[in-house]
Write a structure and sequence with these properties.
2 helices, Immunoglobulin-like, six-stranded mixed β-sheet
Length: about 450
């Protein structure tokens, strides 16, 4: 190095009036670490500005990153490893980093005394501070004695244009009504917030870095959210994109009826179905599979009474409007003789289709129903008096029509709770379960009652 000096020497100090309010142009340490992968006692930065970019007019420059890691090696002695990189950076007018990328090689012809003005009178400049070394002998790697800094000074009359760095919600219904928090810089004094070409239904500026806006109704599709202030309109980019999703439409269902016990596969035809998050039969959730944007296969939910309900589909675009085209009718169960009283319910069945059955959480039946189906609830478990034969398991019937069921199925109207084994039954209060049927092929089904597992 050259002759030493005990004084601090500054080179490149700006002399314009705008220099009074200076902002240092730096790279956050977290970003620097993402490039170096090491930080031993901190990452040293040497920053140079090279002017203003041509698109948004933001300051640009290059940053040299360096950190030194040391320790004793296997063979003894102290070893130091230096990690370094050059990064190209763009800053906005608040000094926040807009973008950065590692450079393949060190830039050339960097001027530590560089000064530039933009058309608005804003100034960027480089400053070099040298301690105990002549400035001419400084290098970017000498971070102990030489510090290169880039600074931005805004003209007092300049208003920074707004910049959007992100939005809290990226999708919402085309009908509008989605609350979105817009983050960025230079948002103070916003005079307009647009979703594409559609003005926000409302917005509130909560600070220079945040706006809360509510979307208005707009056509389906992806648009850029923009903010306008006295400084201009924010540039569009991937950080501000919002997608309006059309509400699902149910145009037809097939079939449009099924048994009250549920489990009827139904094909739902319509539009904008691909993003479906829920399907319901009269407000009761149902299982479903999205086949395409125009088709869903759903399985009807069980109910305890015959009724006509609307099938609706819900997605990020909202819930489908009800119409005659989406009506589904629950019909009395077929395959078993007779019909259950409407208030006969049971919440859960457990066990094996070929073994004993456990019934739990049955709801109380009314006195009228108790009388109507002639159920005996006193003492021990009893079958209803409609011809069924007491059995301990749900095996196939010994003869078609047993218990009043049709062609090869067997019908059980059960009261009480099975508490163990295959023949011990205990009545719990004034309760009654649902009706089960097994067809000639051995398939068990619930023909009156709510959802169950078996």
């Amino acid at each position: 190095m050259g002759a030493a000096t005990s004084a601090l020497v500054l080179v490149g100090l700006a002399t314009t009036a705008a220099a009074a309010a200076q902002t240092s142009l730096l790279l956050p340490q977290t970003t620097a670490f993402s490039y170096l992968g090491h930080s031993c006692g901190g990452i040293q930065e040497q920053t140079f500005t090279t002017g203003f970019e041509t698109s948004d007019g933001f300051p640009v420059g290059d940053v040299y990153l360096q950190t030194q890691c040391g320790g004793s090696g296997r063979g003894g002695g102290y070893h130091t490893t230096t990690y370094s990189a050059w990064v190209g950076v763009t800053w906005d007018f608040t000094g926040a980093v807009v973008s950065s990328t590692v450079l393949p090689s060190a830039p050339t012809n960097l001027d530590p005394t560089f000064v530039a003005l933009d058309p608005h009178g804003n100034q960027v400049s480089n400053l070099l501070s040298a301690v105990n070394v002549l400035p001419a002998n400084c290098t970017v790697g000498n971070t102990s004695y030489c510090t290169y800094r880039a600074v931005l000074a805004l003209d007092p009359s300049f208003v920074s244009p707004p910049r959007i760095t992100g939005i809290s919600v990226t999708t919402g219904p085309a009908a509008g009504g989605t609350s979105v928090t817009i983050t960025g810089t230079g948002l103070t004094g916003a005079t307009s917030v647009l979703f594409g070409g559609t003005p926000a239904a409302s917005y509130s500026v909560t600070g220079d870095t945040s706006i809360t806006a509510v979307s208005a109704a707009a056509p389906a599709g992806t648009v850029d959210v923009s903010v306008t202030t006295a400084g201009g309109t924010s540039s569009s980019g991937t950080n501000d994109q919002f997608t309006f999703v059309a509400a699902p439409v149910v145009s037809a269902i097939q079939p449009n009826s099924g048994p009250a016990g549920g489990r009827q596969a139904v094909t739902i035809a319509g539009a904008h179905l691909a993003g479906a998050t829920a399907v319901s039969f009269g407000g009761t959730p149902a299982g479903f599979t999205v086949d395409s944007d125009t088709s869903i296969t759903a399985v009807s939910s069980p109910t305890d009474a015959t009724d006509t309900v609307h099938i609706t589909v819900t997605s990020p675009g909202g819930t489908s409007a009800t119409a005659a085209t989406d009506q589904f009718t629950y019909t009395p169960a077929t395959g078993c003789g007779g019909s259950c009283v409407s208030s006969v319910r049971c919440a859960k069945f457990g066990g094996s289709p070929t073994g004993s059955v456990t019934i739990s959480k049955c709801t109380p039946k009314s006195s009228a129903n108790k009388s109507a189906i002639s159920q005996t609830l006193a003492g021990t478990f009893a079958w209803s008096t409609t011809g069924q034969t007491t059995v301990d398991s749900l095996n196939a019937p010994t003869s078609p029509g047993q218990g009043g069921c049709r062609s090869g199925s067997i019908e059980y109207d059960i009261s009480g709770i099975v508490t163990g084994g295959t023949s011990t039954y205990t009545t719990v209060g004034d309760t009654i379960a649902a009706r089960l049927c097994r067809n000639s092929s051995g398939t068990l089904s619930l023909v009156k009652g709510t959802a169950f597992s078996i």
